[in-house]
Specification:
Number of strands: 0
Radius of gyration: 22 Å
Largest sheet: none
Low-confidence stretches: 12-18
Helix content: over 70%
Mean pLDDT: 84
Oligomer: single chain
Length: about 150
């Protein structure tokens, strides 16, 4: 056993946020927010596009409940409409999800930075930051969902 002691790691969330705040991003806080928004929007776009085939099958199943077997839907789509039909309607969903994901990502990071000063429990910080970020993103993008539903 080694006799040297390693430094105690109190809280990685606190140290990560403090290091990020100390170094800053190129161009300051505004540039950092735009970077977070770009990352959040890109992540949302990629995630929505990856899930699109499953969503398409789910919607067809919901519309035709009782008239079609769930396991036959992917084969039917592929045979009748082609491979790209799995992503039919994805562009509208991506347009809706980009602002939501961007705002959620930025809000999470900002809430986390603020909550680090209040608590040093990583679980509490992450839970509260995620909850508040979801609330913020939903509140700010609700008008977009309302307009989409009216169309």
């Amino acid at each position: 056993m080694s006799t040297t002691q390693q430094p105690e790691r109190k809280n990685t969330v606190v140290s990560t946020v403090q290091n990020a705040s100390a170094t800053g991003a190129k161009g300051g806080k505004i540039a950092q927010i735009f970077d977070y928004m770009a990352c959040g929007g890109t992540a949302g776009m990629i995630a929505r596009t990856c899930v699109a085939p499953v969503e398409r099958v789910k919607i067809i199943y919901q519309v035709n409940r009782g008239h079609v077997n769930y396991s036959n839907i992917p084969g039917t789509i592929l045979k009748e409409e082609g491979f790209l039909a799995f992503w039919k309607g994805n562009s509208a969903a991506v347009i809706r999800v980009i602002p939501y994901s961007s705002l959620q990502f930025v809000a999470y990071e900002e809430y986390r930075k603020a909550l680090v000063t209040v608590s040093d429990h990583a679980t509490v910080i992450n839970l509260a930051s995620g909850s508040l970020a979801g609330l913020t993103a939903t509140t700010l993008t609700y008008p977009l969902d309302l307009v989409r539903a009216k169309l």
